[in-house]
Amino acid sequence: MALEDQVKGKFDEVSGKTKEVAGAATGDAKLEAEGKAQGLTGKAREALGDLKDKAEDAVDNLKDKFDKKD
């Protein structure tokens, strides 16, 4: 799941940047704003994926520590 969030996040970032640039180039403020919003959403989703990875790693480390005590 974390990888999926990271990939979708990166896709949204790239798509958003494309819209942002296209909006700026054509003078379409709405498209530019949509692009900025999509890019921010992508960054947030990617950060969520990173956070999930770190949480999974922390849980795995705890499991390993408890397994070694047995």
UniProtKB/TrEMBL annotation:
Residues 5-57 form the CsbD-like domain. It comes from the Bacteria. Pfam families: CsbD. InterPro entries: CsbD, YjbJ_sf. Belongs to the UPF0337 (CsbD) family. This is CsbD family protein.
